User: Which sequence fits this backbone?
């Protein structure tokens, strides 16, 4: 009898919708705080908007803890994922997020689409818009591809799921969300990003997000793998979020008293020339291992956006050790992608 009432209770859950935040941290209504049709990077988002996204992700995490995780919020909406590059977490995260919000989700694999017949990105996205897509989630090897899509689409939202070495905003958001959940707040936290920062779209989006939220970011990499183009005088510009960024190529110094150490994969698919003498030498100086971690704060978090090359940028024992939150990053990614799809895809009140 008790078992039956539990079943009835959990069957009733999908009928309830979610109660996402109705106002931003400054008390303004969500629709006033959130005015974007697209999510292309974190650089254009204010602290209020980032906080709203994190608050909405928190609500979504509540949904994910229910017995029945599906809610009708995006019923009747169509989400298309269009991936020109390989992906496990991001693609699965968006597909799952859309389905749990009851949208119809269609995944397009470039290898089996008209792209192989020579169709351009422009024609492909216009075709998807014409076929009533409400949101298109794009991953593309060329930096700027989602921006081009956003410029030409008149009534479809675009989410950048990674463009070349430029940006990966939902990974940036899930990294903010993970640190906030684990440490309570981002303000003043020392966050060390280690490795191939120049070619990592994750690090670039993280840099905007963490600095905007008041964290103290330290970039640690060989000089050939630092993002000089992005920093470009901004670290000296008073009042710019990057003015607090530190550069410390010596990992043993950078890791000292860190709250978070994030290792990054060498993006060899994007490097046009050799940037490091050898993998062995790189690992010797820039691998996040137990010795490096012992220099950070006692309960410092170890993060990695995945996929990991264990033994290169991170040792296996640290990657799977007690301080690693790599798996939490993946599950937080689902809540964050639900929040993004909700804010972009839910019907607007008139
Ligand atoms: N999965 C992340 C990305 O697509 C990180 C990586 O591939 O190293 O950028």
Assistant:
């Amino acid at each position: 009898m008790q078992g039956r009432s539990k079943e009835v209770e959990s069957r009733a859950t999908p009928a309830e919708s979610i109660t996402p935040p109705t106002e931003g941290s400054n008390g303004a209504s969500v629709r006033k705080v959130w005015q974007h049709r697209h999510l292309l990077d974190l650089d254009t988002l204010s602290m209020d908007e980032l906080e709203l996204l994190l608050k909405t992700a928190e609500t979504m995490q509540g949904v994910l803890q229910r017995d029945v995780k599906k809610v009708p919020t995006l019923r009747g909406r169509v989400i298309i994922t269009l991936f020109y590059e390989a992906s496990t977490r991001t693609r699965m995260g968006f597909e799952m997020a859309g389905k749990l919000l009851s949208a119809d989700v269609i995944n397009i694999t470039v290898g089996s689409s008209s792209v192989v017949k020579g169709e351009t990105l422009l024609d492909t996205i216009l075709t998807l818009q014409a076929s009533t897509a409400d949101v298109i989630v794009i991953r593309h090897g060329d930096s700027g591809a989602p921006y081009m899509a956003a410029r030409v689409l008149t009534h479809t939202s675009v989410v950048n799921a990674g463009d070349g070495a430029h940006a990966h905003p939902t990974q940036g958001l899930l990294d903010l969300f993970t640190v906030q959940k684990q440490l309570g707040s981002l303000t003043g936290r020392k966050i060390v990003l280690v490795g191939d920062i120049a070619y990592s779209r994750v690090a670039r989006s993280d840099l905007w997000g963490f600095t905007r939220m008041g964290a103290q970011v330290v970039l640690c990499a060989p000089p050939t793998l630092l993002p000089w183009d992005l920093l470009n005088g901004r670290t000296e510009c008073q009042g710019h979020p990057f003015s607090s960024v530190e550069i410390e190529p010596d990992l043993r110094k950078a890791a000292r008293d860190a709250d978070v150490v994030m290792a990054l994969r060498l993006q060899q698919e994007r490097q046009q020339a050799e940037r490091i003498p050898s993998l062995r030498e790189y690992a010797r100086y820039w691998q996040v291992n137990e010795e490096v971690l012992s220099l950070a704060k006692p309960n410092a978090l170890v993060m990695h956006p995945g996929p990991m090359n264990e033994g290169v940028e991170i040792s296996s024992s640290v990657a799977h050790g007690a301080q690693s939150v790599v798996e939490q990053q993946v599950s937080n990614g689902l809540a964050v992608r639900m929040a993004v799809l909700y804010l972009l895809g839910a019907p607007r009140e008139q």
User: Anything to note?
Assistant: The beta strands are 78-83, 104-109, 135-140, 157-163, 190-194, 216-220, 246-247, 260-263, 301-303. The longest helix spans residues 326-345.
